[in-house]
Structures are given as C-alpha cells and as structure tokens.
Design brief:
The complex is a heterodimer.
Chain A lengths: L2 H20 L1 H9 L6 H14 L9 H15 L4 H16 L7 H19 L9 H16 L4 H18 L23 H16 L4
Helix pairs in contact in A: 1-3, 1-4, 1-9, 2-3, 2-9, 3-4, 4-5, 5-6, 6-7, 7-8, 7-9, 8-9
Chain B lengths: L10 H12 L4 E4 L4 E4 L9 E8 L16 E7 L5 H10 L6 E6 L2 H16 L4 E6 L20 H13 L4 H13 L1 E7 L19 E4 L10 E4 L3 H15 L7 E8 L5 H17 L3 E8 L9 E8 L2 H8 L10
Parallel strand pairs in B: 3-4, 3-5, 5-6, 10-11
Antiparallel strand pairs in B: 1-2, 2-4, 7-8, 7-12, 8-9, 10-12
Classes of the chains: A mainly alpha, B alpha/beta.
GO molecular function (chain A): kinase activity
Protein name (chain A): Dihydroxyacetone kinase subunit L
Keywords (chain A): Kinase, Transferase
Chain lengths: 212, 331
C-alpha cells in the first residue's frame, strides 16, 4: 500500500466527516419531510467523533484506517444509521485488503462492497427509497466510465453527477425501509434524505479533489 | 407507580454493581461495557457463550452467568439493545482460542448490533459466530422484530450450548446444538398487566382491569389478541394449544415444560398453571420429562406468564441435565 493511496483515502473520509458536521441542519431538514428528522443529528454526532479522534487512528494501511472509522461511527451514530454506515466502511475496509493500490477499479470494488453491506445489514434493496438508489447506479456509472477509458477527472465528475441525478429521482419512489416507510405513499414527491446527503458529500469530494 | 430507583439512568449499572457485590467469588463486573462475566473467565479451553439483550428481563441474562451457563452477558438499558461498542469490546474480551458464540433473541435492534459486532470482531481475527433465538409462536412480526421473537425459550438454548461448550465441543458443534434446541422449542405468553420501565415511570401500554393480552412479547408488545380475563385453566388452553399445534408436538413426545413468570406474578400462581399444563399434555400423550417453574425471562413487573415446550431427545435431555452454577440457583 502506497502512502499516496492512504492520503487519498484520508481526504475522502475527512471530507465525508466534515460535510456531515457542516450540513447537520440541512440533512436534518431533508429527513424531517417524511422521516423523523434525526439524520443530520445522527451523522454529525458520529462524524464529529471521527474528526476528534483523527490523529489517534492507526495508519498502517488503508484497510486498518477504514476499520477504525467503522468502529467509531457504528458506536457513535444512533439508531439504525450507525450499523448501516459502519457496515459500509467495514466492508470497504475488508475489500481494500485485496488491492495493492487504490485505483479506480479498487474504488468501484470498495463502493460495491459498501452498498452490498448496507443491503444485507438493512435487509433492503434498490427501489426501497434509500441511499442505495443513488449510490448503486452512480457506482455503475463510475465503473462504465473507467472501463470506457475516460480520464480520471471525467470519471469523478460523472460519478458526482449521476449520484445527484439518482438522488433527486428517489422522489418518485415510495419509502419501504426505515422510519420514512411509516409515511408510505406520502413519501412520494420528496427525495430520500440519505440519498441526497450522499450526493452532497460526493459532490464535495469531487469538487475538492484537485486541491486535496 | 412506586419503584426502588435513584436515578433512572443509573438503574442498570446499580443493579449490575449489586449483582457483582453479591457474588464476589464467581462474577466480575466491567462497568465500561455493562459487562457481567465469570470471575475466572474467559476459559481458554472452551467456546465462550455470550448473550446480550436489553435489560428488564432479569434473571435473563446477567444473573445466569456462571459455570455451565453463560460466560458473559452484556445488557443494554431497559428494553434497549446494548450499544455496538459494548458488544464489540465484550466479544474481544471473551475471545478464547476455541471461539465465541453470541446468542441473541430475534429483535431488530439487537440483530443489527450483534451482526455488526460479529463482523467487526471477525475482521479483527476473532473466531465468532452468532445464533438467533426465535421460539415465540404468537406472531411472525411485531413492534420490535422481523420474524418470530425470541422469548423465555432462550433459556434452553443457553443451557444446552453452555453444557456442550463445557464438555469441549468446538464452535460449529456448539452452534449445531443451539440450532437444534431452538428448532424444537416453542413459547407463548400472556399479560395480565402492563409493565413500568423505571425511566418512564408509568405503564408501557394500557390494559383494562378485566383484559388480558394473549401472545404478549417480553417488552409488552402486542400479541395475537386481547381477551377478557378467564379462568386460569382456560388461559392454559389458550397458550398450550397454539404451542402444541405449531411444532407440532404429538402423542409419544417427551418434553421439557417451563412455566415462566413475567415478573409480577406470584410463584403460587405459576405452579397452578404448571399443574394444569402438565395434566393437559398427559391427556394428549405428551410426557413431561423435565419441569421448570419460576422466573427465567421477565418483563420488569408485568403480571403474566409464558409456557415453553421443548421436544426432548437423549442428546438434549443429557445437556439440560448437566450441572450449572448461577447466582439465582445458589442456596
């Protein structure tokens, strides 16, 4: 594992954490439309702990680093979001062990492991109006771009654009998982809060990449 | 509602502290993780058996830690799954070379936390597996759960896997035993009153003076139906019939019969129920080989009871017959 790779992963995790903290109110407002309004609060409490513990994490390799993040957020994020986001980081961590270098292909594999983990842990799938409806098709798009030989910057832009479009498109879906599912048909017309949060996070990661 | 309580937030830690002080030679209390473990544990020569759940079900599970039963129990707050980091740290602390088995009653919150802790600990090199218990026949889904709930029948799974572990079985063998016992164990409960969590201070749900809840869960979740109070023998029939039909238990079967109090029912009433259940089983050609009457898995101060049947074979009966030493059985 190269030091450069770890620096990239650190940038990604730090941006996720900082965005979750900065956007606490906005994420909460998304969730209040049909959910119980605690998404912003929950994510912020988990990721502010990540920032607070930042210097204490071991940095032997990407996998070890990500696993410690998984422990922190699973422990600190309340409700079901803790185990769901924690599983995503844990599965990405385990998958990272298969790669000597975190290339675009490795990133796709880690994203797939993360979304598969969320599906398994939450007993959910595409169409249930969750963040999966944004992240899974966006990962498909990222993979398609990489396979087509597009340059790295174009791949990143396409990934962010696809996540945003798919997140907005969750408006058409009826919530089948989580607290939002209690709203049933009334959830149609508003996008899923988790999907929108993921879109905003990925847009920040992509926008800041050149100066990371 | 009058309770023995200081600060409701400290209800569980104060209970655990008392338990540890009362059993200094056999139990150890690790306050950082709400953990009660055998004072001599973890035994490096056997699989460690750990159960976690919300509190409020005592003696399950902190008071059934001891030789031949649990190696450790890690409870959450009253009726709340333990936090992930408690389960994760407990799993690592209890890791023996032969592995760790996490036993969990099938509730959504507990399931998510324990599966996550298992996966995390396994990624860190701990040999750990999880077994879910779902003995309740009354409903498939309920307020807290996906699929059948785990209730008082978990006692039999714990007893059998713990005996197998003491005899030296490896982790796969212990799981085989646990799955087998779970598959032949059926329970159904009834509430005469609601229960009162210390932090809430008032009853968790409304049950009329002349009403009972048939098929109630161990947190007072709704069951099959609400009925008017009826004679005890009729209540036994309401519980026993669905249990017998479910497995089904049949003529010639040999069973363990448990009448479990839910916390607020006198033992005298439990024996009254037991007598009728025993006789009704005998009339159907079902022989009671082992009997259990008392409080095993409660719902705070709820008046009520559950009936559990386990179909015995030589292996299960032998495991249930092995010695065990736990706080609630010390004279």
């Amino acid at each position: 594992m190269t030091a450069t790779n770890l620096a990239d992963i650190e940038y990604v995790v730090r941006t996720i954490a900082q965005t979750a903290v900065d956007k606490e109110k906005e994420f909460g407002d998304f969730d209040a439309v049909v959910g119980d309004g605690d998404l912003g609060y929950s994510l912020a409490r988990g990721f502010e702990k990540v920032l607070a513990d930042w210097d204490s994490y071991k940095r032997e390799d990407v996998s070890t680093f990500l696993q410690q993040i998984a422990v922190t957020i699973t422990s600190r994020i309340g409700g079901s979001s803790g185990p769901l986001w924690g599983t995503a980081f844990l599965r990405a961590s385990v998958t990272a062990k298969q790669f000597n270098e975190i290339t675009g292909t490795a990133a796709v594999a880690m994203l797939r492991a993360a979304t598969d983990g969320i599906k398994a842990r939450g007993n959910s799938d595409l169409g249930d109006k969750t963040l999966l409806d944004a992240l899974v098709p966006a990962t498909d798009e990222l993979e398609r771009m990489i396979t087509s030989g597009a340059n790295a910057a174009d791949c990143r832009e396409a990934f962010a654009k696809s996540t945003r479009e798919r997140a907005e498109a969750t408006s058409e879906l009826e919530a089948k998982r989580g607290r939002a599912s209690y709203s049933g048909e009334r959830s149609i017309g508003s996008p899923d809060a988790g999907a929108l949060a993921v879109a905003i996070i990925i847009e920040r990661i992509v926008a800041g990449w050149p100066e990371r | 509602m009058k309770k023995f309580v200081n600060n409701p937030q400290q209800f569980v830690p104060e209970m655990l502290e008392g338990l540890a002080l009362a059993n200094p030679d056999t139990l150890k209390y690790v306050p950082e993780y709400n953990l009660i473990m055998r004072a001599d544990g973890p035994d490096q020569n056997k699989v460690s058996i750990v159960q976690g759940s919300g509190s409020g079900h005592e003696p399950a599970h902190v008071m059934i830690v001891g030789k031949g039963m649990l190696d450790a129990a890690c409870p959450g707050d009253v009726f709340a799954a333990p936090p992930f980091d408690y389960v994760h740290e407990t799993t690592k602390l209890m890791a023996s070379p032969k592995g760790v088995l996490l036993l969990v009653n099938n509730y959504t919150g507990d399931k998510m936390v324990f599966e996550m802790a298992q996966e995390m600990s396994a990624a860190e090199g701990v040999n750990v597996k999880t077994l879910f218990i779902n003995d309740d026949v009354s409903v498939e889904d309920s307020t807290y759960t996906i699929g059948r709930r785990g209730v008082a029948g978990n006692f039999f799974v714990i007893k059998a896997v713990a005996a197998a572990a003491e005899r030296g079985a490896d982790l796969d063998e212990v799981i085989r035993v646990g799955e087998k016992v779970n598959s032949v164990t059926r329970t159904m409960g009834v509430a005469l009153t609601a229960c009162t969590p210390p932090a809430k201070g008032s009853p968790l749900f409304e049950l009329g003076e002349d009403e009972i809840e048939l098929g109630v869960g161990i947190h007072g979740e709704p069951g099959r139906r609400r009925a008017k109070i009826m004679p005890a023998n009729d209540i036994v029939e309401e519980l026993l019939t669905p249990i017998v039909k479910d497995l089904p238990f049949s003529d010639g079967d040999r069973v363990a019969l448990m009448v479990n109090g839910l916390g607020g029912t006198p033992i005298s009433e439990l024996y009254l129920l037991y007598g009728q259940a025993h006789k009704r089983l005998a009339e159907q050609g079902i022989t009671v080989g082992r009997s259990y009457v008392g409080e095993y898995c409660t719902s705070l101060d709820m008046a009520g009871a559950s009936i559990t049947l386990v179909r015995l074979d030589d292996e299960i009966e032998s495991l249930l017959n092995d010695p065990a030493e736990i706080p609630i059985r010390v004279f």
